Amino acid sequence: MPALPKDMVRTAIQAGASARAPVTTPPRFRAGETVRARNINPVGHTRLPRYVRGKRGVVQVNHGGFAFADTRAHELGDQPQHLYSVRFEARELWGNDASLRDAVYIDLWESYIEPAV
Amino acid sequence: MNGIHDLGGMHGFGPVVQEENEPVFHEDWERHAFAVLNLTMAAGQYTVDELRHSIERMPPAQYLETLYYEHWLHAAEDLLDKKKVVTREELERRIAEMAPKEKK
Amino acid sequence: MKHADTHTEPPAGPALRVKALESLLVEKGLIDPGAVDEIIDLFEHRIGPRNGAKVVAHAWADPDYKRRLLQNGTAAIAELGFTGLQGEDMVVLENTPRIYNVVVCTLCSCYPWPTLGLPPNWYKAAPYRARVVIEPRKVLAEFGVEVPADAEVRVWDSNAEIRYMVLPLRPAGTEGWSEDRLAALVTRNSMIGTGVPKVTA
Question: Are C73 and C58 a contacting pair, CB within 8 Å?
Answer without folding.
Answer: no
